[in-house]
Amino acid sequence: xxxxxxxxxxxxxxxxxxxxxxxxxxxxxxxxxxxxxxxxxxxxxxxxxxxxxxxxxxxxxxxxxxxxxxxxxxxxxxxxxxxxxxxxxxxxxxxxxxxxxxxxxxxxxxxxxxxxxxxxxxxxxxxxxxxxxxxxxxxxxxxxxxxxxxxxxxxxxxxxxxxxxxxxxxxxxxxxxxxxxxxxxxxxxxxxxxxxxxxxxxxxxxxxxxxxxxxxxxxxxxxxxxxxxxxxxxxxxxxxxxxxxxxxxxxxxxxxxxxxxxxxxxxxxxxxxxxxxxxxxxxxxxxxxxxxxxxxxxxxxxxxxxxxxxxxxxxxxxxxxxxxxxxxxxxxxxxxxxxxxxxxxxxxxxxxxx
Amino acid sequence: xxxxxxxxxxxxxxxxxxxxxxxxxxxxxxxxxxxxxxxxxxxxxxxxxxxxxxxxxxxxxxxxxxxxxxxxxxxxxxxxxxxxxxxxxxxxxxxxxxxxxxxxxxxxxxxxxxxxxxxxxxxxxxxxxxxxxxxxxxxxxxxxxxxxxxxxxxxxxxxxxxxxxxxxxxxxxxxxxxxxxxxxxxxxxxxxxxxxxxxxxxxxxxxxxxxxxxxxxxxxxxxxxxxxxxxxxxxxxxxxxxxxxxxxxxxxxxxxxxxxxxxxxxxxxxxxxxxxxxxxxxxxxxxxxxxxxxxxxxxxxxxxxxxxxxxxxxxxxxxxxxxxx
Lengths: 354, 325
Known about the structure:
The complex is a heterodimer of chains A (354) and B (325). By secondary structure, chain A is an alpha/beta fold. Chain A has two domains: 4-317, Rossmann fold (3-Layer(aba) Sandwich); 319-354. In chain A, 48% of the residues lie in helices and 10% in strands. Chain A has helices spanning 25-50, 64-73, 87-92, 97-104, 127-141, 160-172, 191-194, 203-206, 219-234, 264-271, 275-285, 291-313, 321-324, 332-353, and strands spanning 4-6, 79-81, 148-153, 176-182, 185-186, 189-190, 210-215, 240-245. The radius of gyration of chain A is 22 Å and the shape is globular. Chain B has 325 residues and is of the alpha/beta class. Chain B has two domains: 3-187, Thiamin diphosphate (ThDP)-binding fold, Pyr/PP domains (Rossmann fold); 199-324, Rossmann fold (3-Layer(aba) Sandwich), CATH 3.40.50.920. Chain B is 35% helix and 20% strand. Chain B has twelve helices and 14 strands. In chain B, strand 2, helix 2 and strand 3 form a beta-alpha-beta unit. In chain B, helix 1 runs parallel beside helix 7, helix 8 (214-224) crosses helix 12 (312-324) and helix 9 (245-254) packs across helix 10.
C-alpha cells in the first residue's frame, strides 16, 4: 500500500519547475510575511507565558508552511475547523492577533468577534474532525459550493472520532479536506509508536478516498495540494486527506521538556529544513526579496505584535458572560446562580471600600 | 385540528413528520432510521416522504452521528439524531459535553447548536443487556444541554416539537416501556409543550409525588393503593433545566415528598430535587423526603429487572411511610 509524496520547494530553496505554482509577487510575499508573522506571534506568546502573562501555550514553530500554505488555498466561505496549533491558519484567515492572545491569556470572549466560518480551537483531540465532516455534509445537502478543512495532528489519527469522521466522509462523499499536521510527536510519543501504518495518509485509502503525503515544510506543496483538494471537494469529488510531513521544533506546550523524549541531533537535522528559510531563499532567487525589505518587515511585524499584546492585556473579563452564553435564554437556576455570584462580588467590594 | 388516538411511537413519528414538512432544515439521522424505519419504528415512513438527504441511514458509530450532527447544526440545519439504545449513548457524551453543549458558550454566541438527540430510555421491556438503562443523570450534569423525558403521547409530540425548535441541544429520552403502552388523543397539526415546565397531574394536599417517564404510570398505579390520601403527582417532563417552582410550591403546601426514578439512587436526580427542597422549602417539610429508585447496581437482566425497578407497591409503601411520619 502506498500513497504519493509531493514536494516542490526543497530545503535549500530549489524549486521543481514542473510543479511550481504560478503565483504573483504579491501572493508569495503574503505567504512569506504571514509565516514570519506566525513565528513572531508564537515567539511572543512563549515569552509571555514564561513571564506568567499567558496560559499554557502550544507553539507552531517549524510548522508555519503547513498552516499558511493551506490557509491561503481556502476561500473565506470555506469552513475552518482547527485543533489548537493552527495559529498560522487563524492569522491567514484574518482573525486579529489580539483575539488570539486574549484566548490564550484565558478568555472565551476572544471568540465574540470570531469571523464567520472559523471555528474556535478544539482542545480535545480529534473531536473537531466530525464537526468538519458535518459542516461539509450540510453544505452538500444545501447544495452550497463550499468545502470544510479540518486540522489535526499525528496523535489524533489514533482516536475514534478520526476514524468515524473519515468513514462518514467516505460514505457520504462530503467536501472535506483532512489536513494532518504530522509533526512527528504527540507530546512525547513518536510517530512510529502511534501507528504501525507506514504513512498516515494511507489511512484514507481504507475509507475509500485519496490520501497524499507531502513535505509540510514546503509552502508551495502545501498550497498546491490543498488547492487541488478543495477544488475537487467543491466540484463533488469528495474528501481528501493530506498528511503534511513536518516537525514540531518546540515543545508540545510550554508545560513539557522535549529533551526527555527526543535527541538534539534530530532537532538539528530538522532545523535545516526550516520552512521560512527556504521560502526566503526562493524569493531572493526570484529577486523579490532582500535584507532591507526583511528588516522593514520585521520592524513592522514587531510593532503589530506589540500592539496586539497591549490590546489583549487591556481586555477586562466580563463576569456576566459566564452565565450569558450557556443557553439562548437564561433558565431560572442560572439567574439565581448569577445573582449569587454578583451578590458575593458586591459584598466583597463593599467590604473593601468600607 | 383533528384528533387521533395515538401511542407514543406514533405521536413522536407525527411530530417528526410535521416538523420536517414545515421546516426544510430539519433532518433525521441515525442507525436504521431510514429503510428500516428505526428499530422501534419511530421514523417509519419518513424516508419515502422526505428522501435520503433528510432521512439518513448512517454508519454504526454513535460519536460519529452526534459529532457530524453538531457540524450540521452549526451550519444552520436542525438534525434530529437517533441513538438506537440508551446503553449505547455513552459514546455520545464526549461530543455532547465537550462540544454541542458548549459551542454557544465557547464561541460567545457566534455559533449555536440546534440539535436533538433522541434515544429510547429505561427498563421494563425485558430487553438484552445495555438495552434497559436509565441514564439521564449523565446528561443532566452537562451545562448547556437540555434533558427531556415525556410520559404521554400528547406530551411526547409537543415536547419533541419544542425540542426541535429550541436553539440549544436537547437530549430527548423516550421511555420505551411507554412506547406502545397506551393511546391517547393527540392533535394533528401544530402545538407545543414548553421545555422546562413540569406538570401537575393531580392536585393534592397530603403529599407530593415526583416522577418522570415511565415512573409516572407507576406512581399513578401506586396512588390507586392509597386512595385515602390526596397525593399531588408531578411529572417533571424536563429534567434540565429544572424549573423547580412547581416542586417548591407543592412542597410548601404538602410538607411531604416522595421522589421516584429508575436511575440508581446515588446522584440520581432525586438527590438534586432534595437539595433544591432543602434550599427553598426545608422548613415546610413535615417528614424526611423519601426516594424510591433503582439500586446502585448495574441494570440487571430481565430475570431480576422487576426487583430492580420501582413499582406501584414500593411507591405505595413509601407514600404511606412518609404520610405517617
